[in-house]
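In the laboratory, one determines a bound structure by crystallizing the protein with its ligand and collecting diffraction data. In a computational setting the workflow is compressed into a single prediction: the sequence and the ligand go in, and a structural description comes out. We illustrate the idea with NAP.
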Amino acid sequence: MPKHTPLQERPPKRPYVLINMAMSADGKIAAAASQFSRIGSKKDEDHLFRLRSSVDGIVSGATTIRQERATLSVRTGKQKKRPTKSAPFRILASAHGSLPLTAPLFTTPGGPVLVLTSNQIPPTQLKQYQAKAEGIHQSKGKTIDWISALAWLRTEWNIRRLLCEGGGQLNQSLLKAHLVDELNLTICPIIMAGSEATSIAEGTAFPSLEKCSQWKLKTHKQINQESFLCFVREDPLTLT
Ligand SMILES: NC(=O)c1ccc[n+]([C@@H]2O[C@H](COP(=O)([O-])OP(=O)(O)OC[C@H]3O[C@@H](n4cnc5c(N)ncnc54)[C@H](OP(=O)(O)O)[C@@H]3O)[C@@H](O)[C@H]2O)c1
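The predicted complex, in structure-token form:
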């Protein structure tokens, strides 16, 4: 394998992409009914908010945003210790435009909202998002074309660090495309079991062990009963 990727083979400019997940000891992020269930502790929540305040954009899938009534916002007021920086973009990933405009993501103050969608979105829903969101990227295919969407986030909105907060379907699409640079996993002392429980990467599997995405452990910290792991890509050279 060459040590450096030739310039002409490098992907377009994109943000550094981090995933953050709290997972059970068996790799699940939600219980079988796939309802919102917080599995991490207060320390894990603090960790999430620290990561949020270190990025320029936060992306999440429509199901997670709907079930968790997520606003993807940062902590404000007294708890903010860093110098003021503009709130990160809040980014919805939704091929079909299934998240209604009444969702707290659209109605709660915070960073500007961007939408990543596909050719599956009904025209009326696209119009509604256009009226409400700061910007929309519509991929030509049925799902989000991540190469083009990430390039758009980087070049149009100057998003240099992007935090992906799941869920499993969204994570899988980025991981399968080898577009994730850092994995932050909080392992919680619980077993959820069963294929019905959502795992950190859903959808189709990598076809063989050789083709799996490979990671190196960068840091490891234990706080009470939880382990906070940070992995980085084995081959970080594809980031331009
Ligand atoms: N423990 C944790 O840290 C944690 C973190 C996050 C989420 N969760 C849990 O995970 C569960 C949800 O995970 P999930 O896997 O079912 O769903 P998800 O990834 O949150 O959302 C799936 C939806 O997002 C859109 N989407 C995702 N990837 C896409 C792509 N590549 N292209 C186009 N659209 C895409 C689609 O929306 P449309 O249907 O609108 O097209 C899809 O139906 C929830 O129970 C949540 O509470 C846990």
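The pocket of NAP is lined by residues 21-22, 29-30, 34, 36, 39, 61-64, 67-68, 93-96, 98, 118, 143-144, 165-170, 173, 198, 202 (CB under 6 Å). Keep in mind that any predicted model is a hypothesis to be tested, not a measurement.
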